[in-house]
Amino acid sequence: MADTKREIERKYESDESGLPDLTGVAGVASVIDKGVAELDAVYYDTPDERLAAASITLRRRTGGDDAGWHLKFPVSSGVRDEIQAPLSETLPRDLAGLVRSRVREAELVPLVRLRSSRDVSDLLDADGALLAEVSVDTVHAERLTGGGRTAQWSEIEVELADDGDPAFLDKVEKKLRKAGVRPSASPSKLARALRETAAPKKGKSAKGKSEKDAVAKGEQGKKGKKGKKGGGGAGKPGGAAEHVLAYIRVQRDAIVELDPAVRRDLFDSVHSMRVATRRLRSTFKSYGKVLDRTVTDPIGDELKWLAGELGVGRDHEVLAERVTEALAELPESLVVGSVRTRVRTWVEAGSSGSRRALIAALDGERYLALLRTLDAVIAEPPLLKGAGGDPEKVIGKAVSRAFGKVSDLVEEALAQPSGVERDLAMHEARKKGKRARYGAEAATGLLGAPAKQLVRDMKSLQSLLGDHQDSVMAREALRDLAFQASQAGESSFTYGVLYGREERRAELAEAALPEAWRTIRADSAF
Fold this sequence. Notes:
Elements lengths: L2 E11 L16 E16 L4 H4 L3 E6 L5 E9 L2 E7 L7 H6 L1 H4 L5 E16 L5 E14 L6 E11 L6 H12 L10 H8 L14 H16 L12 H25 L5 H18 L6 H37 L9 H13 L2 H9 L2 H15 L11 H25 L4 H28 L1 H39 L5 H31 L3
Antiparallel strand pairs: 1-5, 1-8, 2-3, 2-6, 3-4, 4-5, 6-7, 7-8
Helix pairs in contact: 7-8, 7-12, 7-13, 7-14, 8-9, 8-14, 9-10, 9-11, 9-12, 9-15, 13-14, 14-15, 15-16
């Protein structure tokens, strides 16, 4: 199983004069020379450098005390998550999965080899605890494709100790700057190696474009003609299509970027990826006058499938949290029998196997096919006549239609007596509210304040209707638990208490809906 480490470091240019004296850095009691390590790393990427384009590095390194496979994802400037796996001849399966959304079917090939002589020193505090590791690296880079060009340089690297205070790096940098050392212009050794060993650019054509640029432009032109339908071509959409496609591109990118986080089970990653799929589906449906729904509806079906795979564990997790918290709030006098044990068993049973099923879905061909299809619809969008229309008019009408559907369903819910029919109407209004919200999100850059207000209003409506729907689902679960307890000869009293409290929460949500809806109608410009 791969191990993850948060890496916080800074890189500096070095003139090969070695490491300046750092004993004067505040908090540093001693600088310990750890000797020189010889490191040999081969960096892998697709031939078109997809990982490098996303600032992701994948290497197989020998030498030093952490030999093995290292995969690094950017977190923020100077901060990366490094996932390490033991040394092996082939890329470990876990790491291959983490880059799958980027690599797709492309082959990972050795791209660059970096051989470094690393002169390491530890900065220790008065108690002998490690503050940071500082190294002076003499690097020899060799391009392993396209002619084997080479480069050589020296740099200083300062890596914060685990759980260290990032402010300490500011103190080290202040000392380095006083000694004439400056931050590196490259964020990583690989980035510098790729730049300095890149093939020379081809000669310019008569129009000032390289041959490669000219070919690319020609291909784009062909694609534009091929993708043309009704109001515009796919080469460079304008009008309403430009705004819609920009939003679609952001959501496609979110799915790709969140894929590794979902596989690593990082906080909120599953929910965020699921939201991206919903935003895409809503956009395809809301802007059916811009993009041909005979093309986008099947994509929406696949997005619904992916959202379902993401939601298998998530829905149960949310429901379990609601029931568990409600149980914890009850006075002990109202908790009769082995309720907590039964609820705990129910929580664990619902979570069992959900992650395995999700990872299997992300590893499957169906998921890759969906990513390819999203790429294709962005590259060659199925544009309709409305795509080239006045953006404010076309997009404004789409948002207005979406809001109108929400309005109809809310009014229908308000007209129903409390019960199953009202529950269903409120649930449908919630789903249409999401669509209206995401449609308005895509329009905020164009329509400004009215669209932003609608986003806020729909989010507020979602919250109210969502709490009501969660109550409906919680009552179903409590009814099942009560039945199981009764069948086992246990008391069902506590489940009835919880059920009654959920009924009250639903009543409060229903009572709040009329006033909330009046406010939203008053706010709306649609």
